[in-house]
Design goal:
The complex is a heterodimer of chains A (112) and B (245). Chain A has 112 residues and is of the alpha+beta class. Chain A is built from 2 helices and 5 strands; from the N terminus they run αβββαββ. In chain A, a hairpin with a 4-residue loop joins β2 and β3. Chain A is globular, with a radius of gyration of 14 Å. About 6% of the residues of chain A have low confidence. Chain B has 245 residues and is of the alpha/beta class. Chain B folds into 2 domains: 69 residues, no CATH class; 148 residues, NAD(P)-binding Rossmann-like Domain (Rossmann fold, 3-Layer(aba) Sandwich), CATH 3.40.50.720. Chain B contains 9 helices and 9 strands. The C terminus of chain B is likely disordered. The chains are: A alpha+beta (112), B alpha/beta (245). At the A-B interface, α1, β1 and β5 of A face α1 and β4 of B.
């Protein structure tokens, strides 16, 4: 689906989030707001999460999604947005073989 | 995020219109800005730049930190004419990040043998465009040399405000084309937007070199969207200032 001119409705995180919202689910939206060095996903990328921990999209190509999902469940509960930062120093953050060595900042907020 | 902002954003994205989600990182409030909406000050300047580049990022303005998430439709290139230039242009444009579709009703030209891995329509532009309308994130290059095929598509591209409209042919050919487009109801301002002869002037000689010139010109048009309007607005402002003085 590289460079498709149409949205991929089944996989687009913001479309999925809107669908979840319409189904009455509580949803959090995580967005990459800053990157330093080589980061796997560009600024603006989204990961959307529901209260059960289901998620769609990506903020790091798989490296830190687990941590973001866990934080997102808190954000849904509290309604209070969080700014998360992940770097190369986090042993668990980067998948073996991923030579990014970068850092990313992820903003997590509740929808509504 | 405001649920209404999300709905609006998805509506804009589905319709292939650009939008920016502006989030105040201090209090979490957000709003959608559409292309062409007027936003004043430093924030407005940053928003205009984000629309042009498609790059998202944080900006300090009015003593606050805003995150601008730019959602630009995927730009694409529609080529009228399954000719030699198009054979080179299609793979080049795809590599540059501009998906290509080719339209040519002449079935001898529009064959998958000549155009492997390209969305190819062996139909009249009228038929293809009625199914898939043009928009301001589409570039149109008309390269058949045949008015019966090119003209309708050119007029449609001007009406849809395509970010790039190019037409193959000499100045003499273009002068005749201008007459025909005027007869079709195009305005002089619209016609002035057509790049003809097509392509940046790099002295291109072969079909493949012309393809490079066309692609470069389309990219230039895409990355300078809105700059002309801003420049002319500034110019008229400075004229007014002089007048006042």
């Amino acid at each position: 689906m590289e460079n498709s001119i149409y949205l991929d409705e089944a996989r687009d995180p913001l479309i999925v989030a809107e669908g979840w919202m319409q189904d009455g689910k509580n949803v959090a939206i995580a967005t990459v707001v800053e990157t330093w060095g080589s980061a796997p996903r560009p600024v603006g990328s989204h990961l959307v999460i529901d209260a059960e921990g289901n998620f769609q999209g990506s903020v790091s190509g798989g490296c830190v999604e687990g941590a973001v999902v866990a934080e997102a469940v808190d954000v849904i509960e509290s309604g209070k947005a969080k700014m998360l930062e992940f770097g190369v120093a986090d042993e668990t953050a980067w998948r073996v073989g991923l030579s990014c060595g970068g850092r990313i900042k992820v903003y997590v907020e509740r929808l509504g | 995020m405001d649920p209404y902002a999300l709905k609006t954003l998805n509506t804009e994205r589905r319709a292939r219109r650009a939008a920016i989600l502006v989030t105040d990182l201090g209090d979490g409030r957000d709003r959608i800005v559409r292309e062409g909406d007027q936003v004043a000050g430093e924030l407005g300047a940053a928003i205009a730049k984000a629309f042009r580049t498609g790059n998202s990022g944080s900006v300090e303005a009015e003593g606050r930190t805003f995150f601008l998430n730019a959602y630009l439709p995927q730009p694409r290139l529609l080529v009228i004419g399954a000719v030699h230039i198009s054979q080179a242009l299609a793979p080049m444009a795809k590599i540059a990040g501009y998906p290509v579709e080719i339209v040519d009703p002449r079935t001898a030209f529009a064959t998958s043998d000549r155009f492997p891995d390209v969305a190819l329509h062996a139909e009249w532009p009228e038929d293809v465009l009625s199914r898939q309308p043009l928009d301001s994130y589409t570039a149109l290059a008309a390269v058949t040399h045949d008015p019966k095929i090119d003209d309708f598509a050119l007029k449609a591209a001007l009406d849809a405000n395509c970010f790039y409209v190019g037409a193959l042919g000499s100045r003499k050919t273009h002068a005749k084309r201008v007459e025909r487009l005027l007869a079709l109801g195009a305005t002089a301002d619209q016609i002035a937007r057509i790049h003809a002869p097509i392509g940046l002037d790099i002295g291109a000689a072969s079909p493949a070199e012309i393809a490079v010139a066309v692609l470069a010109q389309a990219i230039q048009a895409f990355r300078s969207r809105g700059l002309e309007a801003t420049a002319s607005a500034r110019k008229s402002e400075s004229i007014l200032e002089k007048h006042d003085a």
